[in-house]
Amino acid sequence: MDNERFERGCKKLSEVDGQVGEEVVAPLGDLGKYIVEFAFGDIYSREGLSLREREIATIAMLASRSGVEPQLRVHIKAGFNVGLSKEEIEEIIIQTVPYSGFPTAINALNVLKEF
After folding, report:
1. Are 75 and 58 within one domain?
2. pTM above 0.85, yes or no
3. Do both 30 and 59 map to the same domain?
């Protein structure tokens, strides 16, 4: 394991999700390490987009898919953590309707209503 990459990922994960992120990846063992290293150590640590912008993109992508509600919950929490409001997240979900359809948007809005 590349310790520098893992440490960079842990730091970025903490910025995005706070302690919730650790709680999500810790039980995943090696898969959790890969998520920390790749998603947060490599992708989320790139320059060019703010964490807020990255969460907007992530929420939109997850809201556009079926069967990923647990991950959507994590990223809605992360969205709040990086400054998105509930109203903004609702708009992000509504924006997915023309491209992904009503069923996925309805599912995503139901997840958002949990908060």
Report:
1. yes
2. yes
3. no
Between CA 67 and CA 48 the distance in angstroms is 30
Give the model's pLDDT for residue 2: 64
Q: Give residue 6's domain range.
A: 1-46
Q: What is the CATH number of the domain that holds 67?
A: 1.20.1290.10
74-99 pLDDT tens trace: 999 999 999 999 999 999 999 999 99
CA–CA separation, 53 and 68 (whole Å): 20
As separate numbers, helices (DSSP H) first and strands (DSSP E) second, the chain gives 8, 0
Q: How many CB atoms lie within 10 A of CB 97?
A: 16
Token digits for 54?
């990255």
pLDDT at 22 exceeding the cut of 70: yes
Provide the number of structural domains found in the chain.
2
Average pLDDT, the chain: 95
Residue 85, classified by CB atoms within 10 Å of its CB into exposed (0-12), middle (13-18) or buried (19+), is exposed
Residues 54 and 39 in one domain: no
Listed residue (4, 5, 40, 38) closest to 22, CA to CA: 40
